[in-house]
From TrEMBL:
May regulate leaf (and possibly other organ) development by functioning in cell wall loosening and cell wall expansion. It catalyses: Hydrolysis of terminal, non-reducing alpha-D-galactose residues in alpha-D-galactosides, including galactose oligosaccharides, galactomannans and galactolipids. Gene3D superfamilies: Aldolase class I, Golgi alpha-mannosidase II. One of its GO terms (cellular component) is plant-type cell wall. Residues 316-393 form the Alpha galactosidase C-terminal domain. This is Alpha-galactosidase. It comes from Gossypium tomentosum. Belongs to the glycosyl hydrolase 27 family. CDD domains: GH27. GO terms for biological process: carbohydrate metabolic process. It comes from the Eukaryota.
Length: 397
């Protein structure tokens, strides 16, 4: 009997070891990109939304300066990301990408050094195709290892990898080639898959990248912004530290939306654990833009260590409730009025995962105040058209 039990125990131990080994393999497979980056959503700036192809090294340096002088870098905005159009149309005779001589005469390495000296990080852009989307520079298809080595040698910290002008093969065939190339060069480079959500990259992006676009490009208007938030929400389950859904970069400060709409934009991106990549001209921002993007409490929701992406927990016509658990037993809640008229909207405890009897303290993150009364069962707010409230709820009994 004793011997038998011993055999059983030994067998159980062996099976447990095999299971652990299988788990380790699964874990390795889960992440081909073990670069340790993106434990919270990346924060920084990207040139595309405001400048398109009109970029040069002077304005990139000035943007880095402005990120520091405005205090934005202290709040976590660290990446300075150059988008499309930074290179010559032809590679050199060794097949290397060449920074565009007319706009980046000092080269990208010099820019990386400049940015690093300020405590910031430099991002760059390429494409899993023969040309980038602008068609003004080559893509990296077929040159993945060479380009990854070039980026690493320059001191690049972030790569946005677009999907234009490819060979017709699936992104699931082309993106892993760059993932492997980046791993091979050894430098930790945040890898942003910009596949536009066509093939549901949330379902396969986690082992390959630190973020994956779930949508087509955003434009600076309410319809575009809100529809990107909607498309991105579908994949909430897939977001976690190390890999994030990406509904595209921020338009706050570019002038196409009202203040309330930009607050909705920033609130939804924050609670959705989206990358907070500013897309305005950092050198020339209004007070209003600064107030929105420097809201520390809203940034803290985005950067919460748990990394749970908010889900819509109630939708009634134009009224929606989005919520996500935060660390410390707190809950972030957005009450959103998408409609054209004022409306009174209610967040109910049973929708957001609280026991109906829980007594809650509510912090209004845009008013920067804790509401005087406590709440049981629900919380109601009257919302202007195209506006929202963002609360952090803290159970106190
Ligand atoms: C600064 O921004 C304002 C709008 O807020 C714009 O009218 C002005 O042209 C901008 N200045 C520069 C130098 O871009
Ligand atoms: C909110 O809760 C209160 C009780 O605390 C209840 O009287 C009221 O009907 C609730 N409102 C909604 C809209 O659920």
């Amino acid at each position: 009997m004793g011997k038998r039990r011993c055999v059983v125990a030994a067998l159980a131990a062996i099976m447990l070891m095999m299971e652990l080994a299988a788990l380790t393999v699964a874990e390795n497979r889960r992440s081909m990109l073990s670069n340790g980056l993106g434990m919270t959503p990346p924060m920084g700036w990207n040139s595309w939304n405001h400048f398109g192809c009109n970029i040069d090294e002077k304005m990139i340096r000035e943007t880095a300066d402005a990120l520091v002088s405005t205090g934005l870098s202290k709040l976590g905005y660290e990446y300075v990301n150059i988008d499309d159009c930074w290179a010559e149309i032809s590679r050199d005779d060794k097949g290397n990408l060449v920074p565009k001589k007319s706009t980046f005469p000092s080269g990208i390495k010099a820019l990386a050094d400049y940015v690093h000296k300020k405590g910031l990080k430099l991002g760059i852009y390429s494409d899993a195709g023969y040309f980038t989307c602008s068609r003004r520079m080559p893509g990296s298809l077929g040159y993945e290892e060479q380009d990854a080595e070039t980026f690493a040698s320059w001191g690049i910290d972030y790569l946005k990898y677009d999907n234009c002008n490819n060979d017709g093969s699936k992104p699931t065939q082309r993106y892993p080639v760059m993932t492997r190339a980046l791993m091979k060069v050894g430098r930790p480079i945040f890898f942003s898959l910009c596949e536009w959500g066509d093939m549901h990259p949330a379902e396969w992006g986690a082992p390959l990248g630190n973020s994956w676009r779930t949508t087509n490009d955003i434009s600076d208007n309410w319809e575009s912004m809100i529809s990107r938030a909607d498309q991105n929400e579908i994949y909430a389950e897939y977001a976690r530290p190390g890999g994030w859904n990406d509904p595209d970069m921020l338009e706050v400060g570019n002038g196409g939306m009202t203040k309330d709409e930009y607050i909705v934009h920033f609130s939804l991106w924050a609670i959705s654990k989206a990358p907070l990549l500013l897309g305005c001209d950092i050198r020339n921002m209004t007070r209003e833009t600064m107030d929105i993007i420097t809201n520390k409490e809203v940034i803290a929701v985005n950067q919460d260590p748990y990394g749970f992406q908010a889900k819509k927990v109630r939708m009634e016509g134009d009224q929606e409730i989005w919520s996500a658990p935060l660390s410390g037993y707190k809950i972030a809640v957005v009450l959103l009025n998408r409609g054209p008229v004022r409306y009174s909207t209610t967040a109910r405890w049973d929708d957001i995962g609280l026991d109906p009897k829980t007594v809650v303290q509510a912090r209004d993150l845009w008013e920067h105040k804790t509401l005087k009364t406590t709440f049981v069962g629900n919380l109601t707010a009257t919302l202007r058209p195209h506006s929202c409230k963002l609360y952090v709820l803290k159970p106190i009994a």
